[in-house]
Amino acid sequence: MHHNLSELSDLYRAHLLEDVIPFWEEHSIDRDKGGYFTCLDRAGNVFDTDKFIWLQARQVWTFSMLYRQVEQRTAWLEIARHGADFLKRHGVDDEGNWYFSVTREGKPLIQPYNWFTDCFAAMGFAQYALASGDSQATDIAVKTFRNVLRRRDNPKGKYTKQVPGTRPLKSQAFPMILVNLALEVEGVVPDEEIHRTIDDSIREIMTLFYDNERRITWDNVAPDGSHPDCFEGRIILPGHGIETMWFMIEAIRRFGGDRAIIDKCVDAIVNLIEFGWDNQYEGILYYRDIMDRPPVQLEWDQKLWWVHIETLVALAIAWSVTGRRDCR
Amino acid sequence: MHHNLSELSDLYRAHLLEDVIPFWEEHSIDRDKGGYFTCLDRAGNVFDTDKFIWLQARQVWTFSMLYRQVEQRTAWLEIARHGADFLKRHGVDDEGNWYFSVTREGKPLIQPYNWFTDCFAAMGFAQYALASGDSQATDIAVKTFRNVLRRRDNPKGKYTKQVPGTRPLKSQAFPMILVNLALEVEGVVPDEEIHRTIDDSIREIMTLFYDNERRITWDNVAPDGSHPDCFEGRIILPGHGIETMWFMIEAIRRFGGDRAIIDKCVDAIVNLIEFGWDNQYEGILYYRDIMDRPPVQLEWDQKLWWVHIETLVALAIAWSVTGRRDCR
Q1: Is A9 a domain residue?
Q2: Number of domains chain A contains
Q3: Does B293 touch chain A (CB under 8 A)?
Q4: Residues B137 and B192 occupy one common structural domain
Q5: Are B187 and B283 contained in the same domain?
Q6: Which residue in chain B is spatially nearest to A162 when comparing CA positions?
Q7: Which structural domain, as residue segments, surrounds residue A252?
Q8: B46 to chain A nearest CA, in Å?
Q9: Mean pLDDT over residues A288-296, rounded?
Q10: Which residue of B has its CA nearest to A102?
Q11: Model confidence over A40-58: pLDDT tens digits?
């Protein structure tokens, strides 16, 4: 590769601001019923009108972030407000839990069984609060952030299908998203709560999920960090581990912490790319069994866009922070 | 194709009895902890020891069926008994609901959220009761059959994530498996209950799921048979429809009923193969959107073994019952 970082940065920036974002500005706004259309074909036609709260909240986050970090365009803030208004009105139940999806008009379709929805809602409202100064958005972000922490030991609640006690497993996805969430609510949630969340999550990742010998992270481990020999215990999602690592590098870079962890994170990024790499067709596999046994997930050998985007982001951050040539 | 039905029958029979079944007899019996290993690689090595109740019950069914319909080999009845004993002891909770999976030793792992598990347990115990004359197996089959019917309007119980009322949908999978189940418990469950279950299910399929214009079946419809324009409403699983059709042909052939329905079933088999066919790479797709929009299921374009097996079975039955040349 002959690009340097500033050329790449210009390339991605131009693609984002001249192609991706204008497409969403033009096609995704539901001016009739509020919120956004997110099922768009390549021409911008809407092929489904259901509103998935993950995607509504991610779009509020995106346009709020653009307004704050790229340029204070009124149009961008208006788009963020458009989604935030819909979410305030239709996205949340009486106890402050976020539905998984609602109809185009905002009637709830799928119950708030998915804890990650709440994480994305908190991130969206935090960025929107910072962009708009809307104090109600701040309240929603803080309340949702605390609700996420309150639910973290039993995120699926009554929808949990695991029988308690037989094979307790902890998932890397929880501390992973908490590091990301804490980074995103800075300036909205009190610093002390942010720092505690990041410290606890990084400690959990490094003591339970990080494998000091293999220098990768596992996705599911027993509460003592051991590895039950079962489908869930053996499965690795390279994209998840890579994501976790860059969130941690970013947290340590921003708030300080043990710099030696950054090197471990970069090792894991490089090793997870290698572990997940498809040597025949290239690209990073979605799932791979640590002992190379067949995964139960039918989609295990697919090459997902998000896995590759997270990898590019992780390598760019790893390179810019450490200068390590194996991240170029 | 130049095969005739009796050549094909000899081919499949030899493959089943000389290759497939001996493999399972040799490698799948867990002599130490009871039940069966079902995660076997091509050499017969066990790569996971968790026991999924679907598969345990299907294996009890298979060896009981072989004993009853192929040859009264003691070894086959013993294998069926081996699995039935494990299931009696470990497969079911105090209310008669079947767990989804248990550990190798039989400790429950995943709660009884999956109503199809109960269907397969009832089928397994019914066949085993008929093979063995074990009256306890008869009791379990009858009790589970009635429990399945009792749960049919709310199969997932508290694990249901749909918000009630917003977009009620009925799934073809429920009447489909009830036709199959009713066929499999003949001789164990009183005839009157079997006939009523089959009649009700066929009526539901033909009035709600069968499309008289397109001559295919839909997978999910509104309670009035209309088609909500949403991911679930638009999705068709050709393998499901094909399976439903041959269950219905078999039920009408065995118990009598409206013969005109058989022609509709054969039409749907042929049309669903065509609708699901991948013209580029051949084979039948797992999922296809009726309006050709992108499905949410990542695995939508995979070619699953069960879809193709059900299709072969359906075509063989359709051909033998109607002689229609488009089924050859």
Answers
A1: no
A2: 2
A3: yes
A4: no
A5: yes
A6: B110
A7: 162-328
A8: 10
A9: 97
A10: B166
A11: 999 999 999 999 999 999 9
CB B217 within 8 A of CB B243: no
Phi then psi dihedrals of residue A128, to 5 deg? -65, -40
When CB atoms are compared, the residue of A99, A109, A163 closest to B110 is A163
Claim to verify: residue B224 and residue B244 sit in the same structural domain: yes
- Position A328 scores a pLDDT of 81
Q: Considering the domain boundaries, does residue A184 fall inside one?
A: yes
3-class secondary-structure state, position B211: strand
**Residue B89's pLDDT is what?**
98
- Please report whether residue A221 resides in a domain: yes
Two tokens at B315?
A: 């075509």
Q: Is A100 on the interface with B (CB under 8 A)?
A: yes
The whole-number pLDDT of residue B203 equals 98
The answer to whether residue B224 is domain-embedded is yes
Residues of A in contact with B298 (CB under 8 A): 298-299, 302, 304
Q: What pLDDT band is residue B2 in, cutting at 50, 70 and 90?
A: low
Same domain, A243 and A287: yes
**Distance of alpha carbon B151 from alpha carbon B281, whole angstroms:** 41
Q: How far is B84 from B56, CA to CA, in rounded Å?
A: 8
Q: Is A257 on the interface with B (CB under 8 A)?
A: no
C-beta neighbour count of B48 within 10 angstroms: 20
Domain boundary among A100, A120, A150: A150
This prediction's pTM = 0.96
Q: How is B256-314 classified by DSSP, letter by letter?
A: ---HHHHHHHHHHHHHHHHHHB-TTT-SB-S-EETT-PPPS-TTTT---HHHHHHHHHH
pLDDT of residue A5: 75
The token duo for A202 is 């990084």
Q: For tokens 């960025």, name the residue.
A: A127
Pick from B109, B113, B293: CB nearest A166:
B109
State whether B170 and B104 are in the same domain.
no
Residues A216 and A102 in one domain: no
The distance between the two most distant Cα atoms of chain B, rounded to a whole number of Å, is: 56
- For residue B304, give the chain A residue with the closest CA: A298
User: Does the beta carbon of B50 lie under 8 angstroms from any beta carbon of chain A?
Assistant: yes
CATH code for position B107 = 1.50.10.20
| Nearest-by-CA chain B residue for A294 | B47
Is there a contact between A259 and A235 (Cβ–Cβ < 8 Å)? Answer: no
Q: Given B125, B150, B175, which residue is the final one in a domain?
A: B150
> What are A171-209's pLDDT values in tens digits?
999 999 999 999 999 999 999 999 999 999 999 999 999
Facing residue for A230 by CB, picked from B50, B231, B302: B50
B146 and B169 in a common domain = no
Alpha-carbon gap: B117 to the closest alpha carbon of chain A (Å): 14
Whether residues B196 and B249 share a domain: the answer is: yes
